[in-house]
Amino acid sequence: MITCEDFQNIPSLASGIGYREPWAKVLLETGNGIDFLEITADHFIDSPKWKIDQLKELRQRFTLIPHGLDLSLGSAEGVDEKYLEKLISIIEMVDPPYWSEHLAFTKAGGLELGHLAPLPFSNEAVDVVAKNVQKVRELISLPLILENITYGINMPGHEMSEAKFIRESLNASDCGWLLDVTNLHVNSVNHSFDVSEFLEEAPTERVVQLHYVGFSSNKRGYLIDDHGSPVNDEIWQLMDKVLAICPAKGTILERDSKFPLFSEIIDEAERARSIGKKYMRWD
Amino acid sequence: MGLKNIQEEFVKLSLDKDAREKAFDPSSTDLNDFDHLKLSVKRHAYSLIRKRLGVVKSILRNTKAAMGDAFDNEFLKFASASEVPSGIDRHRKDSIQFAEWLIKETQDSKKSKLLKVLLSHELQPVHMWMNKKKLSIQFYSRSPHQIISLYRDSISITKARISPTVVIWWETNGGQSCYQWKSYSL
Known about the structure:
- The complex is a heterodimer of chains A (283) and B (186).
- Chain A is an alpha/beta fold and 283 residues long.
- Chain A has ten helices and twelve strands.
- Chain A has helices at residues 4-8, 24-29, 49-61, 81-94, 123-137, 162-173, 181-190, 195-201, 233-245, 262-278, and strands spanning 14-18, 36-40, 63-67, 99-102, 105-108, 111-117, 144-147, 176-180, 207-212, 216-217, 223-224, 250-253.
- In chain A, helix 5 (123-137) runs parallel beside helix 6 and helix 9 packs parallel to helix 10 (262-278).
- The radius of gyration of chain A is 18 Å and the shape is globular.
- Chain A starts with a helix and ends in a 5-residue tail after the last helix.
- In chain B, 57% of the residues lie in helices and 11% in strands.
- Chain B has helices at 3-15, 17-23, 38-59, 61-67, 69-80, 90-105, 112-131, 144-152, and strands at 135-140, 165-171, 179-185.
- In chain B, helix 3 packs across helix 6 (90-105).
- The relative contact order of chain B is 0.09.
- The interface between A and B is large, with 45 and 41 residues.
């Protein structure tokens, strides 16, 4: 059994970024200003030798946190064992202090969405997540943290609030929380709820890591976590609020498109680092 | 309805246009759990296709630049009529299938041959990745390099002259660009 204490024993990692191919050169040559990296595990599964060599090279320089996309821990039909084996081989290769996935599902009925879909906030979904995580734990005992996602659709079958669902799911599965502050902000605006109330109900004591990036909005004022914008003021303010109360070990900037100069990424990482320092989350 | 059924129905409605039209047909008397979420499901389905387009665009950059907006329009047509590939290489498979579809769709047009060269060229690193090949040699009647240069200089790519060309692709060691190529034209 993994307890909250186990998560607190994870060393502080401070301020990192999600590894993306355009930054390979600069990260491998200098890597200054970046404390650790999150790698998307799926990008290395079934990859050619050069990609695995690149991973090993990155591992020599940084602590790497594998982040899975397609395990579908919320699938009622269970997890794909072949995919899981491949995912585990990548996780073991980088020997991380923990790894992460999502509180979501990506496949059902033999079809793959190719994207994260929300779960109904129901007791059955809590049980499914716990059962799937237990199955995963039979093969890999490393601490696992789960991320809250954005959702444009309220699935039928809600029985509780999202915050309570996260609490119940993480408690039942003994997982830590990868709190995506951008997803939280986006959902709070799109679904009109109060972030402070959400945080009071949510398992903030289980937060191990944060995700953050900028968001954009469409003509209807609907917020979109496009992973392609500079970090907005609202996100910095929310990060400050979260780091004041959550025992996070690190933050990851998740930029996936419209890549700016790397110096701008370093600046954003530095700002996140200083917020964590202010609350003594790391040195 | 249990979670399993909800998930299966949601995935089907998100991916299958025909299933969506049938489920949300105003004349239908059958009710499903997503009836009141019709608009959200349609938006979700569209956003999944836009996401596929975004990735395929990044893989077929030169073709996108050559075709402009027509690339997006053709992909939207292709995506609404094709199954979403599965597995870890889903976006690579999507790019290959779209290229095959595009070549078939444009076979009667003037640009067909040039498009075929461009797509074949751009898909080489994709095939090399998927087949774990370190070296690939391709023969073309027109130089992909010339075609890329023409559109970069905003010159009509139909001006590409016949120029038998050998293109050699090879894998490099790490860094940003891990598949490199060099062409030799006669």
